[in-house]
# Entry
Amino acid sequence: MTPIGVIHTPFLQTRDTPIQPLGGQGVRGSIVLDPAYADGLADIDGFSHLTLVYCFDRIRAPALRVVPFMDTQERGIFATRAPKRPNRIGLSTVRLLAVKGCVLEIEDVDMLDGTPLLDIKPFYPRYDNRQDVRIGWLERAKDLPVEQLRADGRFAD
Ligand SMILES: C[S@@+](CC[C@H](N)C(=O)[O-])C[C@H]1O[C@@H](n2cnc3c(N)ncnc32)[C@H](O)[C@@H]1O
# Structure
């Protein structure tokens, strides 16, 4: 895969970076798309939210078991949203504020400044939302206040 652009955010260190877009609510960032892909932005301004697929490029050592941000117990990486994944793929739904040429202004960011962007998809509730879900170990974390999603300080490597 070849990155199609770069995500810019105010976050320079993992310890300051929100754990999910919910924790980064209101925090602005931008996408600078490689002009080679500009034609692909046609019609994107009709969407309020975009799902970004990107690379956790600053993860040095992936792991199959991690202690996730919202837990104290080790979990299998595929049962978490933690960044130390074998293919280092991140997924965040952000708010689209404006499209200015190859620059997309966005909000609700939870990635480091300079994160390589792999894809952009429009968020469509009918496809992307689910009812009657089971949420495994995250059941314990579901009512934690949003403040606890703001930043953590772990996973620095
Ligand atoms: C728990 S992950 C969740 C990301 C995404 N919402 C997801 O579910 O795939 C968010 C954390 O990944 C780390 N992170 C963000 N961007 C990164 C990057 N480019 N390289 C390495 N780690 C990164 C930060 O510690 C941030 O708090």
In short: Residues 5-149 form a domain with the Elongation Factor Tu (Ef-tu); domain 3 fold (CATH 2.40.30.70). The mean pLDDT is 94. Residues 2 and 118 are 7 Å apart (CA to CA). The beta strands are 5-8, 28-33, 49-55, 65-66, 75-76, 89-100, 103-107, 115-122.
